[in-house]
Design brief:
The structure is a single chain. By secondary structure, this protein is mainly α. The protein has one domain (3-56). The protein has 2 helices and 2 strands. It has helices at 3-21, 38-56, and strands at 26-28, 31-33. Helix 1 (3-21) runs antiparallel to helix 2. The longest helix has 19 residues, at 3-21. This is Primosomal replication protein PriB/PriC domain protein.
């Protein structure tokens, strides 16, 4: 997925979380989500956050040695 697609998905999860916290029932990925689904929504949001973090801060394979 591209960074833009991941950001859109993150925004959808965030919107779903806020809606459910306000007591609304929403549809996300074809599933009806209610307060009982809050942990599932948060899990998905955290997964997308992690993926965005990895895109924004890729690990380096090598680091420079500091010589004193």
């Amino acid at each position: 997925m591209t960074r833009t697609e991941l950001q859109e998905l993150y925004n959808a999860y965030l919107g779903a979380e806020l809606a459910v916290l306000k007591g609304k029932s929403i549809m996300l990925n074809g599933q009806s989500m209610t307060m009982e689904s809050l942990e599932e929504i948060r899990k998905g949001r955290r997964e997308i956050e992690d993926r965005l973090q990895r895109l924004n801060n890729p690990r380096r394979l090598f680091t420079r040695a500091r010589l004193s």
